[in-house]
């Protein structure tokens, strides 16, 4: 066979995608992971007797890796719908930079590593909660709820709300009212946050066949649901202060931020046509991210200052 024949055969041979390290990093959903780390850290610092810093760091690392495993397995299973949605079409698998099997293996290895690391480093209640979180997100939410019901975000939000409970269990081997309250805040926050995005991206979800609330019950019903959950969230956000495990500073900030979030939800409810409706949904979506980060940052900051003996 001549050199030209070899070259032609090489060109015709199927190309195996070679994923870059950045593609594996993207599988981890780093923005989601950062929120998981922050909320889990709040759970750890709420412990009456916080663990040794090395144990706390190991627990946070394991929880972060578990969140990354969930993201990788989610992208593996959702590659078909990611390919038809503009928001997700550039992810490693639909973009052709990674084989689905690579993402699956990556996610499974990280999931097992995270659960067993957390179990050996802290306790098996925390490990069991982390394993349940991964299972709930991948199997219950991704494989079942996401494609079958417009309540997918509501029920599936439990997975994203569990990290504070995992963190508290890692520090204490137990579950407390404080960690359950933090779970509740994230759980109630999830629907208005994601439905604000779903209103803007309903065409994307329609093409993918995902039964999001705006696609099944319409944008107006979704706006009403957003308003209802925001009414519940505004006072719930102040619960850590009312129950005594956050300071009056947290109480004032959470009340102000919750009131502004509720005002934005009212604007989403009122503005239903054209660019005004889109801008209202975008403002609520973006502020909801800042809202949750702000509440948990204050809790983490206050607990850290308390442990340092500053307050």
From TrEMBL:
Its main location: membrane. HAMAP family: CyoE_CtaB. This is Protoheme IX farnesyltransferase. GO terms for cellular component: plasma membrane. Converts heme B (protoheme IX) to heme O by substitution of the vinyl group on carbon 2 of heme B porphyrin ring with a hydroxyethyl farnesyl side group. The gene is ctaB. Keywords: Cell membrane, Heme biosynthesis, Membrane, Transferase, Transmembrane, Transmembrane helix. It comes from Methylocystis parvus. GO terms for biological process: heme O biosynthetic process.
């Amino acid at each position: 066979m001549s050199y030209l024949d070899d070259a032609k055969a090489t060109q015709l041979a199927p190309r195996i995608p070679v994923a870059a390290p950045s593609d594996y990093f993207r599988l981890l959903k780093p923005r989601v992971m950062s929120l998981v780390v922050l909320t889990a850290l709040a759970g750890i610092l709420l412990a009456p007797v916080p663990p040794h810093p090395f144990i706390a760091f190991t627990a946070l690392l394991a929880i972060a890796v578990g969140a990354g495993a969930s993201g990788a397995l989610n992208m593996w299973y959702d590659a078909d719908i990611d390919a038809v949605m503009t928001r997700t079409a550039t992810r490693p698998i639909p973009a052709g930079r990674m084989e689905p099997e690579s993402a699956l293996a990556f996610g499974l290895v990280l999931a097992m590593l995270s659960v067993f690391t957390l179990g050996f480093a802290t306790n098996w209640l925390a490990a069991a909660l982390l394993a349940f979180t991964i299972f709930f997100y991948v199997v219950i939410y991704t494989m079942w709820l996401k494609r079958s019901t417009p309540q997918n975000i509501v029920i599936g939000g439990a997975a994203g709300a569990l990290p504070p409970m995992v963190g508290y269990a890692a520090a204490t081997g137990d579950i407390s009212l404080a960690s359950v309250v933090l779970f509740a805040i994230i759980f109630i926050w999830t629907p208005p946050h994601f439905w604000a995005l779903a209103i803007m991206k309903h065409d994307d979800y329609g093409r993918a066949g995902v039964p999001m609330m705006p696609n099944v019950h319409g944008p107006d019903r979704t706006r009403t649901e957003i308003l209802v959950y925001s009414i519940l969230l505004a006072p719930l956000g102040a619960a850590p202060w009312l129950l005594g495990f956050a300071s009056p500073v947290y109480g004032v900030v959470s009340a102000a931020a919750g009131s502004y979030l509720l005002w934005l939800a009212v604007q989403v409810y009122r503005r239903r046509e054209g660019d005004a409706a889109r801008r209202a949904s975008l403002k609520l979506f973006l502020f909801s991210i800042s809202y949750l980060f702000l509440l948990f940052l204050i809790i983490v900051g206050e607990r850290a200052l308390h442990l340092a003996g500053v307050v």
